[in-house]
Amino acid sequence: MRRTLAFPVLFLVAAALLAQAAEAAKAKPQHKMGAKGFVVWPAADLKWEPLAGAPPGVMTAALWGHPTKGAYGAISKFPAGWSAPLHTHPANHKIVIISGTWIHGEEGKSDVRLGPGSYLFQPANRRHTSACDAASECVIFIESNGKFGIKMVEEKKAPAKK
Question: Could you tell me the pTM of the whole model?
Answer without folding.
Answer: 0.75
